[in-house]
Amino acid sequence: TNTMKKLTYYSAILFAGFACSSPQPKTNTDSDFSITSKKILETTESYLSGQLANPSIGTEPNGIIDIKSPGMLFQVNPYDINIGKLDEDNTDDALVTYTVAPEGVPKYQKHLIILDRDGYKVVKDFRLEFKVMQIANRRVFAERPKISNDSPAHDCSHCKENVQYRLAGDSLVQVK
């Protein structure tokens, strides 16, 4: 019975380890997602590095990528890369959310629209308060606050609304 207890104990630990593993990035159903996400991450790093003087790039233990120079920090969470078809060419595109943390100023989020135009290219870098849920049917499904960021109730679940955007040119426009 002692062996049975040990076997049950180790099985429970193994099960808990699998059950508590990290969430996977949001993805479409394409089999080359990992190749696509890697290329999009490389495009993101290159673009953001180009915005800084003498940037350095590092990865935190939790997987967040830091791109920094004196006075400025960009942070990219690989789980905030949303891949799907945004334009009409049937290739995967992406919407990447990243954090901007200037020294002495509250941090905020921005987004990159990355389209596949003979290779991945950033076509728009913009600030809009929303959380991307998914890209499907050439639309971005997102959640945005109904009230301002400085309100104490900013994060309440009833203070948010679901919205949809579509690509128009190189920008997102809200679908009514």
Notes on the protein architecture:
The model is unreliable at 4-31 (pLDDT under 50). This protein has 176 residues and is of the alpha+beta class. 20% of the residues lie in helices and 41% in strands. The chain is globular and about 45 Å long. It contains two helices and ten strands; from the N terminus they run H-H-E-E-E-E-E-E-E-E-E-E.
Return the structural class. Answer: alpha+beta
DSSP helix fraction: 10-25%
Radius of gyration, whole Å: 20 Å
User: How far is the first residue's CA from the last residue's CA?
Assistant: 65 Å
Largest sheet: 6 strands, antiparallel
- SSE order, one letter for each helix or strand: HHEEEEEEEEEE
Mean residue pLDDT: 83
Enumerate the strands of the largest sheet in spatial order, edge to edge or round the barrel.
1-2-3-4-5-6
- Rough outline: globular
The helix tally amounts to 2
Uncertain parts = 4-31
In total, the number of strands is 10
Tell me what portion of residues adopts beta-strand conformation. Answer: 35-45%
Topology diagram in text:
Layout: H1 2-19, H2 33-49, E1 56-59, E2 65-69, E3 72-84, E4 93-100, E5 108-116, E6 120-126, E7 131-136, E8 139-145, E9 160-168, E10 171-175
Antiparallel strand pairs: 1-2, 2-3, 3-4, 4-5, 5-6, 7-8, 8-9, 9-10
